[in-house]
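User: I'm putting together a teaching handout on how sequence relates to shape, and I'd like one worked example. Could you take histidine kinase from Antarcticimicrobium sediminis, show the sequence you're using, and then write out its predicted structure as C-alpha cells right after it?

Assistant: Happy to. First the sequence, then the C-alpha cells directly below it.
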Amino acid sequence: MRRLSLRLRLALVGALAVVGALAIASTALTALFAAHVQRRAEAELSVQLDQVVAGLGRGAGGALELQNPPADPRFDHPLSGLYWQIELDGAILRARSLWDHVLPLPPDDLRDGQVHIHSLPDQAGGSLLTLERSVTLTPSLGSQRVRAAVALTTADLKQARADFVRDLIPYNVILAIALILAGWVQLFFGLRPLAEVGKRVLEVRSGHQKRLGDGFPREVLPLANAVDALIDARDAELERARRRAGDLAHGFKTPLQALLGEADRLRKNDQTEAARAIEEIADAMRRHVDRELTRSRLAGGATTASSNVERIVQRIISVVSRTPLGAALTWDLKVPDALNVALDPNDLTEALGAVIENASHYAKERIEIRAIERGSSVEIEVQDDGPGIDENRIGELRKRGARVDESGHGLGFAISAEIAEAVGGRLTVVNTSPGLCVALHLPKPAGCFPAKWVGNCRAMRPKEFGINLKKIPYLG
C-alpha cells in the first residue's frame, strides 16, 4: 500500500478535526438552544400560571370559578397543547382545551407559593411540560388551598429544536468548507520550505548545486545543515577512496613493469612460453588496474556532464579508419547530430572506442553504428558483420573475468561496462545475423528534451530520469 504524502495526511487530519469540532460545537449549540427554549417556555408558563391563580373568583352561586382566564386563545381550543387545571376540595377546574382529559399531577407536598416542574404524559402519546403551584386563597375566597397547574406540549419545543438543527446545517457546511480550504492554504505555505528542500536535493543530485545552502526557516535549517554535513562527509570519503584506489593502482605499475621486463628478458633467452605466461598475467593485472582507475575517476562524478554522441563517434571513426583493418571497412553511421548523453566526452570516447575497435578487428566488410533515443536514455549500437559469438558462450560473458578471445570478441568490454554502469547505464551483447551487436545504454543529460525538439540541453532544468539499474556483468 502506498503511503500518503505528508501534505495529504495533514490535510485529511485537519479536515477530520474541522468536521469533528463542528459536530461537537453543533451538538453543544443545539443543547444550549433547547435549554434556552425550555427556559423561555417555563417563563411563559409561569406568567400564565399567575394569570390562572389571579383569575379565580366567586361565581353567582358562591362557588369558585375562573372568572378571568388567560388571554391565550389556545386554552379555548380542544387538545391545542396548552392547558390549565385547578384542584380544590376534590373538585377540578380545567381549561376547555383539556376537553375530557385531566392532568395526572403526581402526589406532591408543596409549600404555599412553591412551584414544581413535571413532565407528564400527553393524551396524544407525547409529553407535557407542566408547572404546578400550591396557593392559599385570600379570606374573601374562603382561605382555601388550591393546586393550580399549567401544561404545554413538548412537541412544539422539539419542533423548534429540529428547526434550529436544520437551519444550522447549511452554515456548518459552509464553515467546514471555509476552514478546510484555509487549512489547505496554511499547509501550502507551511510546507513550501520542505518542497524547497526537495528541490535543492534534486539539484544537488543532478549536479547543478553542491549544497542545499541556507535561506530556510529556523525549523527547517537544521535539516538542511545536516544534509550538507552528510554531503561533505560523503565527498570527503569519496575523495579518500579515490586517492586510495589511485595509490593502489599506481603502486601496481612498478611491479607490472618489472614483470614485463622479466618477460622480455626470458623472450630474449628463447623462453617464449614463460614470457607469454608472464605477459598474460601482467596484461590481466593491467586491465584490472585500468578498471580500478576508471572506477575511481567516475566515482561521485557530477551528473551534469554532457557529450554529443555524433561528434564522439566521428572522432573515434576518424582514428580507427586510419588503421589497416579500419581502412578496409565500410562505416554506416546513423546518429542524430543533436543527441547527447550524460557522460564526460573522454569517458564516452573510452567506452565507445573499446567497442568500435573490437568490432573493427572482427568485421568482414561493414560496421553499422546507430544511436536511438528511448525515453530518458540513449541506446548506441555498434553492429559488425563478423563471426559473432557462440550462443552457448554468451552466458559466460556475464561472469566476471570471463574471456572469449577464441570466439573473436570480448576484449575491452569490461571498461566500457564499468563506465556505463557508473552513470546508471548498461552494456548488452546480442548475436545478430550476421555478426554481433554491442549496445551501450546511457542516460540523457538531466532535464534534456528529445533530440527532435532541442539540440543542446545542457541549460535545461534538471529532472529525474528513470534508468534501469540492472547490474551488468563485466566482460572481457
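A couple of points you could highlight for students: The two ends are 43 Å apart (CA to CA). The chain has three domains: 6-160, 213-302, 304-443.
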